[in-house]
Amino acid sequence: MSRILSKATRRSQLRFDGWIAGMGTAAGTRIVLGHWPRSPFGPFSDVMLERADGERLLLAPTPETADFISGTYIFDTVHVVPVDVSVADDIWTVMAGPLGLRFTVGHRRLLGWLLRVVPGVLARLPVWSTLTDFPARVLLAGVRTRGSARADRREWYGAQDLWPVHTVSAIFEGDDLGAMTPVVPPVRFGSGSVPRKPALTRVMTTVALAPGEDTCPGVPGRPHDGGTYGKG
Fold it and tell me: Cα–Cα distances in Å, from 27 out to 30, 72, 231?
């Protein structure tokens, strides 16, 4: 009986190694880019948007990534579209279906330098994210480093670097979204938002599946170890 209960309450963990960028626009659309060179799905990127009227959209590159992300976070609309990300020095360019996005990243500040010394082996531990949750709430309004997700999943974020976003240019469905603004109000995809000030974060994200949920469609038995690039 104890073995059956242990299997039923066990939580398989999936890790995503990459970057999260969050920014607001004058049109009221807030944008969150996830760029994952290393993930259980192989390298991929996705975009979450919340419009001024509150509609939450997901742009994901495959049915498998769309199913997993929409099974973890909350969206009103999900689109499976090509999501291409290119990085040249401090300029990030994103093409994702109806969205064209370009943003520039500045020099890291004190918090970024402090996060940079966090070893990767520590950043991926849920206990580390639990310990840093309160400081993150104090230093970065709206940010959580742990929380509950849909379908009884749990998540932890281990940040390892942080840069300010200086400029944003975005077009969605042919409309210019205007100049960069703070991420206000906070986005409502999950248990926490991104920093209020537009920023790019180097992060290790861990998602614990529901008890007894051993895997997800499209997830192979071993995580894919893809290359990394971008700011160092």
Answer: 9, 27, 28
Which of 70-74, 121-125, 153-157, 171-175 holds the top average pLDDT?
A: 171-175
- Alpha-helix runs per DSSP H in the chain: 2-9, 63-72, 110-116, 120-123, 126-139
Q: How far is CA 215 from CA 200, 211, 222, in A?
A: 29, 11, 11
Q: 125: helix, coil or strand?
A: coil
pTM of the model: 0.82
Dihedral class, residue 77 (left if φ above 0, else alpha if ψ from -120 to 50, else beta): beta
Tell me the pLDDT tens digit for each residue of 118-142: 776 766 666 655 555 545 554 555 5
Contact predicate 26/231, CB 8 Å? no
